[in-house]
Amino acid sequence: MPEIRSETSLLVIFVDLTRFASQSQRVGDVELADGIDAYYEQVAASVQDAGGRVVKFVGDGVLIVFTEDQVDRGVEMLLALKEAIDRSMAERGWECRLIAKAHFGTAVAGPFGAVGDKRHDVIGKVVNIAALLDSAGVTLSVAAFRKLSPPLRRRFKKHTPPVTYIRAEDPRRFR
Fold first, then answer.
1. How do the domains of the chain map onto residue ranges?
2. Which residues pair with 110 in a beta bridge?
3. Region of 21 on the Ramachandran plot (φ > 0 left; ψ -120 to 50 alpha; else beta)
4. Which of 127, 79, 135 is nearest to 107 (CA)?
5. What are the φ/ψ torsions at residue 67 (nearest 5 degrees)?
6. pLDDT tens for each residue of 39-93
7. Which of the two residues, 3 and 121, has the higher pLDDT score?
8. pLDDT band for position 170 (50/70/90)?
9. Do 146 and 128 meet the contact criterion of CB atoms below 8 Å apart?
10. Do 170 and 138 touch, CB atoms closer than 8 A?
11. CA distances from 88 to 24, 82, 84, 94, 131 (A)
């Protein structure tokens, strides 16, 4: 049975790597491809183990979603993934570090694309809001922060303006 589009409440996450463009200029194409593939595998395994879904990879960027009942698991996965990716990039000798931005809200999920080649995607304002969050490490919108359990909320501190919540260990700017 074909997948249908539906409006659903989701934790929408974007992750990508700082300094990836400059790193891509310092290494050969084969090393770059091997490095990005290892990164993809690590992100996908972490997301799958936590019960989320990788929607798509675009360069060093990844769009990830978790259902409303999995918000804590999704954020816990992000915190662990940040440490793991940063460590693996350092071991590889790359200056790249993971940044993550998460927002919670309603989006339309389902098949989109060319006739005969539709692929699962997530479309809506919540996706754009997540993509535009300013991040230096792991950043949550107010809506995402409010979905967290109280113990997990303690891992974040308020950051303004606009109001977001950043992982307590992350600097204000990572540039």
1. 6-167
2. 121
3. alpha
4. 127
5. -70, 165
6. 999 999 999 999 999 999 999 999 999 999 999 999 999 999 999 999 999 999 9
7. 121
8. confident
9. no
10. yes
11. 16, 10, 6, 9, 24
Mapped to the 3 state alphabet, what secondary structure does the chain carry? CCCCCEEEEEEEEEEEECCHHHHHHHCCHHHHHHHHHHHHHHHHHHHHHHCCEEEEEECCEEEEEEEHHHHHHHHHHHHHHHHHHHHHHHHHCCCCCEEEEEEEEEEEEEEEEECCEEEEEEECHHHHHHHHCCCCCEEEEHHHHHCCCHHHHCCEEEECCCCEEEECCCCCCCC
Residue type for 132, please?
L
Map tokens 């972490």 to a residue. Answer: 46
Q: Which two tokens stand for residue 171?
A: 């600097």
Contact 167, 154 (CB under 8 A): no
CATH 3.50.30.10 fits 6-167, yes or no: no
Question: Rounded to an integer, what distance in angstroms lies between the CA atom of residue 64 and that of residue 54?
Answer: 5
Lowest mean pLDDT among 17-21, 61-65, 135-139: 135-139
- Residue pLDDT, tens place only, 28-40: 999 999 999 999 9
Q: CA 163, CA 145: separation in Å to the nearest integer? A: 11
